[in-house]
């Protein structure tokens, strides 16, 4: 579980986050949503320790990260997995070497044990037989799954996913959402997903925090969001759906002309 209490963050005179509190529960997909500039990225960077908030507390399983010493922080970071928006794979390394990288960095396991673990997580994300391929030789969806395999190879207790469906087609996005949900539940991970994808919100949004101009505007589940009377949230949702529908209509018209 991750608990954030009264988080505030400013850059100069500009207030980015204002008094944000939330509890991100274990075994659930906790989503942070909002328009560009709403504070999603800054909040996430505060939670993982890349930014230090001006005020507030960030508790990992009851331990305040902001009060931890260097050694404690290092141990905590080994319990955190990251799935980056752009995958952040090393182009000069094979799939196997990319997934092996955290094990080489943070463990003293034998090579055979590390290789076994790499095979386990690649199998878990349905990527058997691609160990020796390079990122340039696999599809965007496969790259995302490699990134997911690497993010869980150290058995993290906390998983952060930054726009996991960015650049993916709808069908592949569903596959990634399903994997994130399954892994979260199976391993009882506290998962935080930053996303603009309303399909992801409705598919895996066990707990959703909607930010608007640096404030927590709304909080609830994907079931609650359907019945929300929050005007700003509804505008955000319907705008997202409108844009998706408009994109599909343009694609249909383009196909007709061909």
Automatic annotation (TrEMBL):
<dbReference type="InterPro" id="IPR003593">
    <property type="entry name" value="AAA+_ATPase"/>
</dbReference>
<keyword id="KW-0067">ATP-binding</keyword>
<keyword id="KW-0547">Nucleotide-binding</keyword>
<protein>
    <submittedName>
        <fullName>Phospholipid/cholesterol/gamma-HCH transport system ATP-binding protein</fullName>
    </submittedName>
</protein>
<feature type="domain" description="ABC transporter">
    <location>
        <begin position="2"/>
        <end position="238"/>
    </location>
</feature>
<dbReference type="GO" id="GO:0016887">
    <property type="term" value="F:ATP hydrolysis activity"/>
</dbReference>
<dbReference type="InterPro" id="IPR017871">
    <property type="entry name" value="ABC_transporter-like_CS"/>
</dbReference>
<dbReference type="Pfam" id="PF00005">
    <property type="entry name" value="ABC_tran"/>
</dbReference>
<keyword id="KW-0813">Transport</keyword>
<dbReference type="InterPro" id="IPR003439">
    <property type="entry name" value="ABC_transporter-like_ATP-bd"/>
</dbReference>
<dbReference type="InterPro" id="IPR027417">
    <property type="entry name" value="P-loop_NTPase"/>
</dbReference>
<dbReference type="GO" id="GO:0005524">
    <property type="term" value="F:ATP binding"/>
</dbReference>
